[in-house]
Amino acid sequence: MDITFKDVSYTYQPGTPFQGLGLEHVSLTIESGSYTAIIGHTGSGKSTLLQHLNALLKPTAGVVQIGDREITPETNNKNLKAIRQKVGMVFQFPESQLFEATVQKDIAFGPQNFGVPEAEAMARAIHMVELVGLPANVLEKSPFDLSGGQMRRVAIAGVLAMQPEVLVLDEPTAGLDPVGRREMMALFTRLHEEQGMTIVMVTHQMDDVANYANHVIVLENGQLAKSGTPREIFADPAWLTAKHLGLPTTTQFAQALIQKGFVFDQVPLTEHELAAMLQAQLPSKVGERRE
Amino acid sequence: MNKLILGRFMPGDSILHRMDPRAKLVASFYYIGIIFLARSWPAYAVLFVFTMSLVLISKIKLDFFIKGVRPLLWLILFTVLLQIFFTRGGHIYWQWGFLTLTRYGLLNGAYIFMRFVLIIFMSTLLTLTTPPLSLADAIESLLKPLKAIRFPVYEVALMLSIALRFVPTLMDETTKIMNAQRARGVDFGEGGLFKQMKAIVPILIPLFVSSFNRADDLATAMEARGYQGGEGRSKYRILKWQTMDSLAMVAMAILTVILIVLR
């Protein structure tokens, strides 16, 4: 299910003195099956853009095409449920959305809203708890008895239980420890690779962008600054710095190596790539030094 | 919720913005009180001109105030219509069953309408030109005499300023939780009364839980910064009574005299 923005603008509280611009003439496509990372400075309109992906916000101008549904400024607020089931959204700090008496009921809440019978929704919850890497005994616990990291997993499981085609994540690893972060990112990669789920992720972690994404959207002041593959985006460090964005650690390290005389045909994005490229160069360097 | 401007603050730079919040608070309440003195058209004319000149001084657009009245329009119309049709006395213009249209009725309706508009304008003017925290300071300062009867002035003021500070935060939180639950397939404002009430549970519980957590964190942070209660604390924001504020009080006194004369 492709999601296409056609000249989309969004203004907050239009017609009042508190008016604020969220998005300005944004046109882009999030292809089905892609792993898209959205990056940008704080307040660049990332979260506003995310909320258009499942019609929580409607554009004040332009058209958002979600699958075969067109969302225009005139679109009625009713009958948007089908979209919200297909586009699952995990908000920032999603642990604040838990409310049911037990974890199992909370995970089953989403599917039940979309008409899944109770028995099946409960069965899905059991499966989801396993999928996000929690022990089965949390099912009967109250979500408020869990640790912050576990609550986060339950919240994500609650969205995954809706079996969305597109998974939208707003900084899913913010505030998690390194192990939790790696596990979460591995889970999303598995969903992407094994189930072909489209993933859209807002993140400030450039390492995650370089390691996992295959499409990057850069936003600045509500406008689309650039979009392309991670390699295209990270190829120009000066441009990124001007936009107050960083480079992945690997790319930073490669930059330092270039200053020392190393040559790379293309920017290394992951540690593996960097290692392979270095291996190709090192023996000759070592050899030169011996002479 | 976005349409209601009553209770909002608009940053600006006018004489009204710079006035002492205590003076503004006292003057506004006093003004709302003396509106009820007016019982003739000349008196209302004076009040109207006075209010409009204050709006002009505040440098805030008039249509902004008119928008502020709009959400309350139905309440105003309802009251005015009740007054018009149920007040007896004077010349009867029209009668049908228990409804009568009389001279006094029309007059009363018009007065009530004027009162509503003046009161809303004045209270809107107060909150638009005064930051909520200044208002809390003013209330604390004005309540001080109550200390004599063991009223916990300082605690009330602290609660008030914390509450005011967290109104926008809680509003943001509510919107966020509502959106998150919407994304999980909850319909707000749809279906029958029972269904709508049930849809509120997934907002209320997370909101309560996060408020408890927030209160806990805030209390810890306050203690860690050496907070021990109201006694012996100094103040950062100090209210200053200026000539302008005394002039406002004089203006209120003159206005009272005029209104009594015009009665």
TrEMBL record, chain B:
Any one GO cellular component localisation term in the record: plasma membrane
Keyword Oxidoreductase appears in the UniProt entry: no
Pfam families, alphabetized: CbiQ
GO molecular function: transmembrane transporter activity
Organism domain of life: Bacteria
Keyword list, A-Z: Cell membrane, Membrane, Transmembrane, Transmembrane helix, Transport
InterPro entries for this protein: ABC/ECF_trnsptr_transmembrane, EcfT
Localization annotation: Cell membrane
Transmembrane segments: 44-60, 72-94, 106-128, 149-167, 246-262
Topological type in the membrane: Multi-pass membrane protein
Family: Belongs to the energy-coupling factor EcfT family.
PANTHER family: PROTEIN ABCI12, CHLOROPLASTIC (PTHR33514:SF13)
Function comment: Transmembrane (T) component of an energy-coupling factor (ECF) ABC-transporter complex. Unlike classic ABC transporters this ECF transporter provides the energy necessary to transport a number of different substrates.
Quaternary data: Forms a stable energy-coupling factor (ECF) transporter complex composed of 2 membrane-embedded substrate-binding proteins (S component), 2 ATP-binding proteins (A component) and 2 transmembrane proteins (T component).
Name used for this protein in its record: Energy-coupling factor transporter transmembrane protein EcfT
